[in-house]
Amino acid sequence: MDHTMMDHSKMDHGHMGHGDMGAAACSMNMYLNADIKNLCILTEKWHITGVWSLLQSCIIIILFAMLFEFIRERIRRYEAGIGAIDIDSSQAGTVSSERATNRTPRAIRQSQMIKAFLYAFQVAVSYILMLVFMTFNVYVMAAVVIGAGLGHYFFNTDPASIGSKSMACH
């Protein structure tokens, strides 16, 4: 088709789909850095453009790391509660009939499902924290560590459990 005779004066060729060319791009570093601009966390939508957005992001990351510690503590308490029922059930002479009947196969499956869900949620949160940490930004890394420490302080009620589990990806 020959388009030489067509009138193109009313067509807008201004941006041609390159509207984001002027916007700052995310920087991705594979080394420690202290950048406070053009840092993206997990996705391009979570874009740090300055001190204020970095501060807001660090607060969110601290809360997320605290959530990880909260989940760990809930799992520990849930497992301790299930363990106490199992111990009581194994001591037939000291068990009330009501507690002994609580551990039917259906109840066991249900407790396994709850433990599996909590574990999967914990793994998901831990991997997200690992990816956040891997921005190699010292402020973001500090936020993860501070959140883990605060979460451990506020949610860990068993002083004997210090060092029993480390914060790991999985």
UniProtKB/TrEMBL annotation:
Check the UniProt entry and state the signal peptide residues, or none: none
The lineage's top-level taxon is Eukaryota
Does Membrane count among this protein's keywords?
yes
The answer to whether the entry has keyword Signal is no
User: Which GO molecular function annotations are given, in alphabetical order?
Assistant: copper ion transmembrane transporter activity
Annotated keywords: Copper, Copper transport, Ion transport, Membrane, Transmembrane, Transmembrane helix, Transport
Membrane protein topology class: Multi-pass membrane protein
Q: Membrane-spanning residues where?
A: 51-71
Where does it live in the cell? Answer: Membrane
Q: GO CC annotation: what is one?
A: membrane
Q: What Pfam families does its record include?
A: Ctr
Q: Which family does it belong to?
A: Belongs to the copper transporter (Ctr) (TC 1.A.56) family. SLC31A subfamily.
Q: Which named protein is this?
A: Copper transport protein
Instruction: State the organism of origin.
Output: Protomyces lactucae-debilis
